[in-house]
Design goal:
Layout (H helix, E strand, L loop, with lengths): L10 E5 L28 H13 L4 E5 L9 H9 L6 E6 L4 H11 L3 E5 L5 H8 L4 H14 L5 E6 L6 H13 L2 E6 L24 E4 L4 E3 L8 E2 H4 L1 H10 L13 H4 L2
Parallel strand pairs: 1-2, 1-7, 2-3, 3-4, 4-5, 5-6
Antiparallel strand pairs: 7-8, 8-9
């Protein structure tokens, strides 16, 4: 499966919910957001059907995102359904880690291979300030549970203002080095202004080699995070939504003044 710029598209990011148990300052306002109606959120069968078609066309890598994917009721069952699709070689999840202490063993057994865990600081007070409601120890417990369950390699997603040399980021670096983890430094982005950069330690933000499409919780197949375009699989059908997303995938990201990080998946 190729886009109009001959980039091979083999990666699908799937937002399974727009709900989250954090209120991170760079992701959503303190008062929260207007959530999707439950009827507007894709069912497990719809998600699996969309992924299954994608795999038949060359998708090999699937990442589950949110919101916070672990707050989706029945998420372990969904992971099991997806892992049974032949052709997926990399099934992962991005999570804030809070519920991993409870769910990591079941997720591993269901077929999840690895996790990226959001961690912006090792200072408990700063962590609470950034997340507004989070408890750092809950995340650390989740990381330990993920290690024990074998959801590896574990990558830490650390949001930074300017670089991985910032004090909070350096705390995360030290923690990662001491615990056999990897770190990806993600510069704060602004969808509406179109400001983004290549992830330090990863490929995100490198438009020249972008290999991904995104499926939102309400069924929009998005060609790019920094694009207003989305093609709904319920309205157009799965095959046509993929076709249009590939056709309209831009050479590089521009702006997105309609979507938000919490409902696209970052």
């Amino acid at each position: 499966m190729y886009d109009c710029f001959s980039r091979k598209i083999n990666y699908l990011r799937v937002s399974v919910t727009d709900r989250c148990n954090f209120r991170c300052t760079y992701c959503m306002p303190a008062e929260g957001v207007e959530l999707l109606r439950h009827n507007d959120i894709l069912s497990f069968d719809e998600i699996v059907a969309a992924i299954t078609y994608g795999v038949s066309q060359g998708i090999t890598k699937v990442r589950l995102t949110g919101g916070e994917p672990l707050v989706r009721k029945g998420i372990v069952n969904l992971v099991q359904m997806i892992s049974s699709i032949k052709g997926i070689t990399d099934l992962s999840m991005t999570t804030n880690g809070v519920l991993l202490a409870e769910l990591a063993p079941a997720l591993k057994e269901a077929g999840l291979q690895r996790v990226n865990i959001s961690l912006d600081t090792l200072d408990p007070n700063r962590f609470k300030q950034i997340t507004r409601v989070g408890n750092l120890q809950d995340v650390l417990n989740g990381i330990e549970a993920a290690k024990k369950a074998g959801l590896t390699p574990i990558k830490l997603n650390c949001v930074v203002k300017n670089s991985g040399q910032e004090p909070d980021a350096q705390m995360v670096t030290k923690f990662a080095n001491e615990n056999g983890l990897q770190v990806r430094y993600i510069h704060e982005m602004d969808l509406a202004k179109g400001t983004f950069s290549v992830v330090e330690g990863g490929d995100g933000g490198n438009c020249a080699i972008c290999n991904r499409l995104r499926l939102t919780a309400n069924g929009n197949m998005m060609p790019c995070l920094f694009s207003n375009k989305g093609f709904n699989i319920r309205e157009l059908g799965i095959e046509e939504a993929y076709h249009q997303a590939l056709l309209k995938k831009p050479k590089s990201g521009k702006v997105n003044n309609q979507g938000k990080f919490y409902n696209i998946g970052g």
